[in-house]
Write a structure and sequence with these properties.
Layout: E1 3-17, E2 20-21, E3 32-35, E4 38-44, E5 53-58, E6 63-65, H1 71-85, E7 94-107, E8 110-121, E9 124-136, E10 140-150, E11 160-161, E12 166-168, E13 171-182
Length: about 180
């Protein structure tokens, strides 16, 4: 019997971190950005994760700087992220759909997994792998892990400040602790 877990963003933590480089990078922020609004599901065919599927849809307008920084800086980073980097008026969502799940059992109902699939971001679709620890509980599941992407792989404009003396690094690091609630049926 298949198990279906609906992702619960209110019980989850999902972030992306950007990093600064350049001559003045010591004075720049490496902002941690909270991903507040997303949905999706993990569907398992029964025993274990093999043959299952994972889908995720993120609403980019929900991203916001979560660092404790000056309000003025936070507002400017949010503005640049939405308008210039993600172009949320043009690209309304970010999607991941697994093509396969590889998993090794660590202990009962606890797995080390690799979700291989396609990430659609900024109008570009690329193969992406997500490493995660998966814990199956009686009424829920928990995915914890992370992955990195390069902005240029998705034709995302790397921002700069201070006349180019501060430049966003190409790599973005995502980390997550996502809870999914088991659906009846």
């Amino acid at each position: 019997m298949a198990l279906r877990f609906r992702l619960d963003p209110r019980s989850s933590r999902f972030t992306v971190q950007a990093f600064a480089s350049g001559m003045l990078s010591a004075f720049a922020h490496n902002p941690v950005i909270a991903i507040r609004d997303f949905n999706g599901e993990l569907v398992l065919p029964g025993d274990g994760l093999a043959g299952g599927s994972f889908t995720l849809k993120v609403h980019p307008a929900s991203l916001e700087v979560s660092d404790n920084i000056r309000q003025k800086d936070r507002l400017e980073i949010d503005r640049v992220m939405r308008a210039e980097v993600l172009e949320i008026d043009k690209f309304r969502d970010i999607r991941f759909a697994s093509q396969s799940i590889e998993a090794d059992s660590v202990a009962e109902n606890w797995y080390r997994a690799k979700f291989k699939g396609d990430l659609q971001l900024h109008g570009v679709t690329r193969p992406t792998e997500i490493d995660a620890q998966v814990t199956l509980l009686e009424d829920s599941m928990r995915l914890g892990g992370g992955f990195s992407i390069r902005q240029t792989d998705f034709r995302i404009k790397r921002t700069s400040a201070a006349g180019g003396m501060i430049v966003a690094k190409d790599d973005l690091k995502f980390t997550f602790d996502i809870v999914g609630k088991k659906e009846a049926g």
